[in-house]
Amino acid sequence: MTLGDILNSIDTFSDDLVIFAFRNGSWNLEAAAALIPLEELENSSSEHADLTYFLEVQIAKDIIDTWRTWRNGKEPSLIERAEAILYYVENDAYLPPAYGT
After folding, report:
1. DSSP 3-38
2. Is the pTM of this model over 0.70?
3. Residues 9, 48, 32, 68: what is their CA dihedral angle, to the nearest 10 degrees?
4. CB 73: neighbour CB atoms within 10 A?
5. Per-residue pLDDT, 28
6. Which alpha helices (H) appear in 25-101, and where do they start and end?
């Protein structure tokens, strides 16, 4: 599974999951990723040892919902989802509607 796969289907995942992804310099949609239940984080197996905490699914869903709301209900593309979520991860803030324009 890739980070792009997860972000593209984020609405289908349980809120109690945490996204972990492989980070090699910067995040990208092709990065290997995994979903790990919150209650299993402490007991996470070594199969995910090369992955880094990325974001909780519940927060990712909120970021996308806020993106939609701030853009009059428009459905974000995968690239727009990634931009909004990466902006949040890096800035601890929602992506403003006029960002990048």
Report:
1. HHHHHHTGGGS-TTEEEEE--BSB--TTSBEEEEEG
2. yes
3. 30
4. 7
5. 85
6. 57-70, 78-91
Nearest to 42 by CA among 13, 18, 14: 18
Work out the mean pLDDT of the chain and round it to a whole number: 87
Q: Do 21 and 3 meet the contact criterion of CB atoms below 8 Å apart? A: yes
- Determine the Cα–Cα distance for residues 87 and 98; give it in Å rounded to an integer: 13
CA distance linking residue 2 with residue 8, whole number of Å: 10
Cα(1)–Cα(34) distance, integer angstroms: 7
Where exactly are the structural domains of the chain? 3-91
The stretch 31-56 carries a mean pLDDT of 77
pLDDT category at 88 given cuts 50, 70, 90 is very high
Classified as helix, coil or strand, 2 is strand
